[in-house]
């Protein structure tokens, strides 16, 4: 069968790319070996947020007295918590199937591999029934995503029993009473936050000297303190040397500050990063350039092989669903001969823990390292009217501007639902707003987003409420 575009992988990068290709009048096919929606909708972004919401609500039951409320018989049914999460994932995946049908995109359920061809590599699909079919297209776009990184040599490899990857952690049969999380990036912290909310004793191990190491240092330190107040324990600047399993739990040997230490728990979650799904597709035979598990592309997603493109996690960091969608739309619009928006638009990053963390653009340290003379503003939620009324006073907003031009270089937040607020700063950066533009913007009152306005004002010594 012949198509204009074949997309391999139906995650947020792949299915959005296919939809945009169809909108542009291209005959489009998509190949998916597991479930429509990819890891994000089925085993990542969406089901984890369902779990985190259950954990957040359960934890809030212990703090009702301050609102003049009370509850008796506080408990949870872990199987139903997991069931709800899986139901949400199934609903979203079904929605993607509807979108494929609506946009007349041909779906092939199977694993794809590439063979030499022109004007683009030929796509051979081994369907789930076992038979093979060959597809040809003018353009082939790889959106095969990534999987959890493991380190088998020291025992950091999921077994679905005592050692979990993110997939195992999403649907266990029972809730562990104690848990060790190895890695304090967004994935590790989100699972740590969820299981702590349900009462598990949680210890997080981080090889670097602070948790959430990609975030601004002030936010990282504030998050560390906030999580400790919730009862979580941390070992930073700690190197795991060995993970050992038994029938009843795990032992994690580590080195920190020149000293050896061993931690024990029922379960360990391995969250030490991800690696691109570049294997078993015939990339080597085609001569596709791969660097450290990711396909090398130009500014439009094009690889070094004619007619072959790559977007999303397989094309490198940041490993975020919205980045994959953005790259996919850009790639297919470029193929169509349009002049798509800047591929390097600001990409927000979010961690959906309690409290939440969100950021976009440069940290204060990165701005200095890049040669800027940053002007920094901060505003705490503890003096924001909506936050006080809602009982959500933890955290702050931080802004980083270029001292010479007034350009917004970055914004960083920690607090309640800040993942819903960061988009305001992402829009501002995309539109190249200056401090004057943001100062002149009217923010509704009372809202937590007023803290954004105040953080802008504070960078220039004009904060009104502190």
Characterize the structure shown.
With 466 residues, the chain is α/β, with parallel strands linked by helices. It has three domains: 2-148 and 275-335, FAD/NAD(P)-binding domain (3-Layer(bba) Sandwich), CATH 3.50.50; 152-272, FAD/NAD(P)-binding domain, CATH 3.50.50; 355-459, FAD/NAD-linked reductase, C-terminal dimerisation domain (Enolase-like, domain 1, 2-Layer Sandwich). Helices cover 31% and strands 27% of the residues. It is built from 14 helices and 23 strands. The protein has helices at 12-23, 38-43, 45-60, 78-102, 166-170, 186-197, 217-229, 283-286, 321-335, 364-369, 385-390, 422-430, 435-439, 450-459; strands at residues 2-8, 28-32, 106-115, 122-127, 132-142, 146-148, 163-164, 178-182, 201-205, 233-235, 238-245, 250-256, 259-265, 267-270, 274-276, 290-291, 294-295, 308-310, 349-351, 356-361, 374-380, 396-402, 408-415. The chain has a five-stranded mixed barrel. A five-stranded parallel sheet has the order 7-14-8-9-10. Strands 19-20-23-22-21 form a five-stranded antiparallel sheet, with helices on both faces. A hairpin with a 4-residue loop joins strand 4 (122-127) and strand 5 (132-142). Helix 1 (12-23) runs parallel beside helix 9, helix 3 (45-60) packs antiparallel against helix 4 and helix 3 runs parallel beside helix 6 (186-197). The protein starts with a strand and ends in a 7-residue tail after the last helix.
